[in-house]
Amino acid sequence: MNFDLFKNRTITCVAMLIFFAGLFLVACGKKEVKPVSPESKLTQEAFQLADTLRKAYLKNDRESLERNSTQDGYRQIAQALKSFESADLTFTPTWAEIQDSTVKLTVSWKGTWVVRGKTTEDRGSAIFVMEGEPLKLAQIQRANPFAQPE
Prior knowledge:
Elements: H1 3-29, H2 38-58, H3 62-67, H4 71-80, E1 86-99, E2 102-115, E3 118-131, E4 136-142
């Protein structure tokens, strides 16, 4: 038996195996970049708007609240606003429903408010109805997170 021939075939087979494995990895290694869907963009915009409203509320920035809301939406927020010494409010988006150009963003919220030295905590679920382009808050359904407990 000729071991030189066997050795050459083994080296050739190993080299071919490494070549094809490398080719396979290179061919399958690239991820296809899919374009972002319009619904996904709209949902991201809704998340950002909710966070903008939350930050404006905590800073008591009425101009920003008004700028990011429709007239009815701002009226609903303004009627609920009460003064506080400090507040902490967190939003956790749980569901987004898109219908035409309207987004209904369901948000689970938790808040802590300090009023005249007394700390109050509350939590709830709200639906922010957003519409327009760019999105603006049109209505708050369920428990309004901007109406802190008394």
